Amino acid sequence: MTTPVLSAEPIDELRCIFVADRPFLLDEGPRKFTEPEETADAPPAEAILAVTGVCEAVFSGNRVTVVRDPDGPSWDDLIPQVQYALSAAVTSAATAIDTDRAPALDDDAIYQEVEHIFHSQINPIVAQHGGAIDLIDVQDATVVIRMSGGCQGCGMANVTLRQGVEAALKKAIPMLAGIRDVTDHGSGANPYFASTSK
Question: Among candidates 124, 114, 129, 136, which has minimal Cα distance to 180?
Answer without folding.
Answer: 136
